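Subject: complex prediction, re-run

Hi both,

The earlier run crashed halfway through, so I resubmitted it with identical inputs.
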Amino acid sequence: GNSVTQMEGPVTLSEEAFLTINCTYTATGYPSLFWYVQYPGEGLQLLLKATKADDKGSNKGFEATYRKETTSFHLEKGSVQVSDSAVYFCQTSGSRLTFGEGTQLTVNP
Amino acid sequence: DAGITQSPRYKITETGRQVTLMCHQTWSHSYMFWYRQDLGHGLRLIYYSAAADITDKGEVPDGYVVSRSKTENFPLTLESATRSQTSVYFCASNQGADSTIEAFFGQGTRLTVV
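This time it finished cleanly. Structure:
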């Protein structure tokens, strides 16, 4: 089955710092790839996605590029804000919705 | 309202009692899922369902029972609750295994077993 490896957290940054959260996957075929965000006390919600190789997903200043050659989908943001503090999950499509372990991000003012 | 709803949002129950968590979606998505989320463990899949009357075990199915008699509902039952089942439970749905469309999550049920 598919699997996802996500960088371990927690991650603590100062406001306006650059963010990278690494995600690599193993899968048969060509899955779609997703990043979700979970704010405190809420369910997961889609942040961005990419459905084929070399696609770039983007939303709210976050970006991730589907790299088939390195089986990666790293999440980046050039300048984080306090409001970005949340848990971030990488996911591949498939019958079981395979998620990474989640990365807790805290952004300090 | 369209969406996926879980009930109750909060539940406290005693060890040994049976408790059922409800999940309802309005999109007619074929796939539905139950996860538990514990600190340090991310999301762990309990059970999932590919269609009405088709269910399958996930990573941590022991102590749980599911059913799916209707496409829109996917209840999760703890047959005899234990303290180790204290957790936040999330229900999710999506269109299918190879879907390019994201999964949609409920708000979660925080269950405490005392």
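The CA atoms of residues 50 and 61 of chain B lie 16 Å apart.

- K.
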